[in-house]
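Follow-up to my earlier ticket, as requested here are the two runs.
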Amino acid sequence: MKIANERCLVLRISNHRCISSCLHPTYSINGHLLNTVSEVRDLGVIVDSSLKFDKHMFVIVRKAQQQAGLILKCFCSRDRDLLTKTFCTYVRPFLEYSTPVWSPHYQYFIFKIEDVQRLTGMNNLNYLESLKALGISSLERRRLERDLILCYNLFYGICEILLPFKLCVSVTRGNSCKLVKTSCNTNAAKYFYTNRIVLAWNSLSDTVTVVFVSASSVNVFRKQLNTVNLEKFLIVG
């Protein structure tokens, strides 16, 4: 396969800002000097040199708001069910693509993403009450559920990826599939998927986690998650 040299870039991952570019080596492919960038889009997700996804979240929120605005502009009807289904079909995918990779931990971004969904709410109700009336969950809870579903798929080998977790050797309380939470020195590691999901996963009971009995078990796990109270892991609710 021929490499497209002009489309190859260099992204240095570091917490320290480079004072002088001469401190770092340059790279080339077939004599073509590669440009060094501070951020890059990989499979639709924008990541910077500090492993932060701030730019990505700004971009998807802007796209989702534009899409939601177009829906309200193009639809004369203000039927709640119609607008909710349209929002879930055409707007929410912008905000939920690859969330296990970039899920935010700062309140600012959590509320900023949630604000897009407020367009489907009612003025006489607060946000959580409007979500309940519309029969939908907060985007923050949906991200957590998607994290847990991915953890389930990884744990039971449904995803063909080596298990990136460390299992507890002895379990005296909770579910029998508990994971070990590692200590971290940076936010990038602390809030990385394999570490941030541990507490929520360990809080689940065996009746939720041990459902790997048939090909439909993922759907069973997803349905059981709907009955679990995850509020202590959420800011919005």
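Run two:
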Amino acid sequence: MLLRALFLLLLALNLGVAAWLYFAPAPPAPEWSASDAGIPALVLVSEREGAGPAQAAELAAAPESRSQLGRDRCVSIGPFPTQADMRAAMNRITPLVERIQYREARATQSRGYWVYLPALPSREQALGVARQLSAKGVRDYYVVTAGDQQNTISLGLFRDQANAERRRRELAVLGFDPQLIQRTEDLPVYWVDYADDPVKPVDWRALLPDLTELREQRVSCF
């Protein structure tokens, strides 16, 4: 009988503790700060006192650049034959201008002039014509033995067109029919674009006295 009474008492106590834990109010959650202690919180300019519509509009508008105001003069100089020439020019001009950039382009450049006799049907015929040249005192020639120009007889490469024309006439007088063509190659060239003050334009020619073949042209501002 005593054991039964103790069991019922313990059961009642357990039920009372469980009920108190279930129905007791939850403790308040701790408040977390958006910044560390001692550091003021960030405040937007528009949230400050006295920041009216005029000030907000002024902040929203992007500042106008010189190119937007139309006060810049934008030019391009070139073509520079190598990157080294282009970079040397940029180093001299950069401190004097508002903005500067470079760009790469392609240009067909002359590699000189070639005087030759057109390809013969066979190597034996090409060698036969070579012997005729030698018999008439011509020493500066070469029989092409391979490639697209096989069996062609080269009579010289010339940088100057006038010299190439003179060579062609000399061979024509000896009874041959030499041809003359200009050899070209598609190569990269470089331009330097910059923006400066039209009131005080940059004298780039004085800065680059050795590059006499450069030219200047106006371009749209960037």
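The only thing I checked on run two: The longest strand covers residues 99-117. Let me know what else you need.
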